[in-house]
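Workshop exercise sheet. Pairs work together: one partner reads the sequence aloud, the other fills in the structure field after running the prediction. Swap roles for the next sheet.
Pair: D.N. / O.F.
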Amino acid sequence: MRPQGASLSAVRSKGRARESAPIEGLPVSKNEETVIDIIGMNHDGEGVGRANGYTLFVQGALPGETVRVRVMKTKKQYGYAKLLEIVKASPDRVSAPCPIYDQCGGCQIQHMSYAGQLAWKRQLVIDNLQRIGKLNVMVEDAETLESNAQNDNEGAEQRVHDDANQITGPATSEVQMIGSNRIRLRLEGVMNEEDAEQGIRVLPTMGMDEPWRYRNKAQVPIGATEGGLVGGFYAKGSHRIIDMESCLIQHEHNDEVVAKVKEIGSHFGISAYNEETGRGLLRHVVVKKAFRTGEMMLVLVTNGRDIPYKDEWIGSIREAIPHVASICQNVNKKQTNVIFGDETRILWGRDVIYDYIGDVQFAISARSFYQVNPVQTEVLYGKTVEYAGLTGKETVIDAYCGIGTISLFLAQHADQVYGVEIVPEAIEDARSNALLNEMRNVKFEVGASEDVIPRWKEQGIEADVIVVDPPRKGCDPRLLETILEMKPERVVYVSCNPSTLARDLRVLEDGGYRTVEVTPVDMFPHTVHVESVAMLVRDNYRY
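Structure field:
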């Protein structure tokens, strides 16, 4: 309640003054300009520098640069500054090729060379393992590690070639044999006490030969201007839509479909959803592209079931984009920033499109989760199979199995795979994908891993390997306890968040496991995101 007689504007002004009161004793003040050296980059891709010991985060600055900045915001321990001038540029600085890069929030580090991005992502993983997990990381430079890894791989390939006549069946495929030999050799070197003290080996980040146009899915929010519909990414730190004709990390066909939907929708006078009023029809356009088969799915996310000129709109889309195999409508009437609602209808074509990861085929529906970078997904899963060290005799449990992508990859090389996932729709997809691939050595169950896996153990199911691929928040503590109780010979941890990976590895190490090796995989070039695969073995375990 405001003081009697005080105007609302006066109270607001007093509140703003109180909030923006400067913090005394800082070496810099708001709006001050200063020159600083950038000594690192944080997980958001902001350059980290210090002004007289005070930390400043600078968007757009790269490690090794000297920059002139204006202080924009100060807190007790750190502040934020705007990049004004690059006094000395980093050798990794490049010109971002995207024309709306400075406005759009989709990519964060296009201004960094791709080699620089890969090196930074490896270092980000190392820093988290050391700082959060308090884990001992082997000190080797990236060039030495890359050379050693290449030598390991070439040696394994030669041994596979020499023993080619003895290879039979999917459980002893060339890829699996190479992986097993590499891991066996590495463990023989790492598992002795002297070498183990050197710490975890973090390999160079596995990047892409062509790190552009890699995304197979576009989720584009739709807005309106006087000229018609607009669609693109949100501007940094806002829900203001930056209209986009071309996204350099999207497959070209996704761009074409979104552009045609906007054009045709504008022609028929389709209204765009307004977040503030809750009115308007078209909320998002979602496009999925199957890289291997070429099939495409279009999902129109609408604020209601009725679509004006529905038949004409669908007919125009089919005529303009003949390779679209499925057109769906998802109805979301809720005032929320969640993209999908509960109801999905087929407007034309099939309810799924088909794609492959390696030799495994997947049916992809409107709401199925499917990795957005199929090229690197095969790399990620190949590394997972390698770290599992499968010979065809093992029983494997895949926690957080989703629609069964990793489970089915593992099932090609294991005796039996059990997958568990808390989302019922995902398990339905997983079972359908197992049938699609005629894989009978994999079983899926709905539930929380920490509840289902102990029940499996009571039924006599003992896992040789447990694979986890949790969300960004990491593993549930009870699942980690379950793993320690199950005592599998190996644990393979697939992570999309280095900080929670480090936290969970610490728990597993304290419980009797040893992290042998971690490989970062660049699933999202030109963004700050990095995936990793970690291999753990039970302490004192020998092959």
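Discussion prompt: Confidence is low (pLDDT under 50) at residues 1-19, 151-191. What would you look at next?
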